[in-house]
Amino acid sequence: MEWGGVLMSKSLSNIKIKKEENLCLVSVNPKLYQLDVIYSAAYVFIDRAYVLLDGDVKKKVIVELKPKEGCSLEKLGMEFNNELLNYAQYKKQAKLNAPIRKALIQRALLTNDPSLLKEDDDPDLKEIEKDLDYLKDPKGISIPWEKKHSKKKKPKPKKSRKKK
Amino acid sequence: MIETKLTRIKIKLNKQFYDITAVRESLKDFKGACTGKIANKKSIEIILKPKDKPINALGHEFCNYVLGLMKNKTLV
């Protein structure tokens, strides 16, 4: 196997299969995937396989998967790897979106009672308030068409009656 | 690690990954199917004894149940 000009004889696979015991062992590096991510991935497999966690939290986590019904052991391990990646990405995105989510929920909850907004000193909400420039209407979009384009009636000059 | 014998099932759970309160809760929930106790609190050793007849993969089911309880705890 060649990778970037370097010959690699060692496989990167973290899956070990024990056919006699009908087991699949997946070793996970806890530095790459945090423990809560491993728990989440393991939880997904609960209905398809018997899951057992072992190893060392700091060095190497070993996830033992024993399929409940006839299922390919290798496929099970590979799917577990995918699930790990899935939850790691989910966690990363959730962390990034947390302040936005919080601000949106607060905004939604305060919509019905704007008086509460004044009492709240949350800087996130103040930031949102600053962005409420949609209330300004420099082009006069909110003005009804009739009002905008109606011709102003000029007062008619009074006709002076001719004296006969 | 799960050791299955005719009359009893011995389970050893790693304390770093499994919560002892979740194990206790699971034992309570499994009362209908088996009796169990925590033999060694340091490494969480559990001994399950099926009540009537041996249930297939009871030990594994127990471990999955503990994991499920723990997951729900973090979710709630």
Brief sketch in words of this structure:
Chain A is an alpha+beta fold. In chain A, 40% of the residues lie in helices and 17% in strands.
3D architecture notes:
- The complex is a heterodimer of chains A (164) and B (76).
- By secondary structure, chain A is of the alpha+beta class.
- Chain A is 40% helix and 17% strand.
- Chain A has five helices and six strands.
- In chain A, strands 3-4-6-5 form a four-stranded antiparallel beta sheet, covered by helices on one side. In chain A, strands 1-2 form a two-stranded antiparallel ribbon.
- In chain A, a hairpin with a 2-residue loop joins strand 1 and strand 2.
- The radius of gyration of chain A is 33 Å and the shape is rod-shaped.
- The termini of chain A are far apart.
- The mean pLDDT of chain A is 80.
- In chain B, strands 1-2-4-3 form a four-stranded antiparallel beta sheet, with helices on one face.
- In chain B, a hairpin with a 4-residue loop joins strand 3 and strand 4.
- In chain B, helix 1 packs across helix 2.
- The longest helix of chain B is centred in the C-terminal third of the chain and has 18 residues.
- In chain B, 29% of the residues are buried.
- The mean pLDDT of chain B is 81.
- Unreliable stretches of chain A (pLDDT < 50, length at least 5) are none
Main sheet properties of chain A: 4 strands, antiparallel
Oligomer state of the chains in this structure = heterodimer
What letter string, H or E per element, gives the SSE order of chain B? EEHEEH
What is the helix tally of chain A?
Answer: 5
Present the secondary structure layout.
The complex is a heterodimer of chains A (164) and B (76).
Chain A: E1 2-3, E2 6-7, E3 15-18, E4 23-28, H1 35-44, E5 49-55, E6 61-67, H2 73-110, H3 115-119, H4 123-130, H5 145-149
Antiparallel strand pairs in A: 1-2, 3-4, 4-6, 5-6
Helix pairs in contact in A: 1-2
Chain B: E1 2-4, E2 9-12, H1 20-29, E3 34-40, E4 45-50, H2 58-75
Antiparallel strand pairs in B: 1-2, 2-4, 3-4
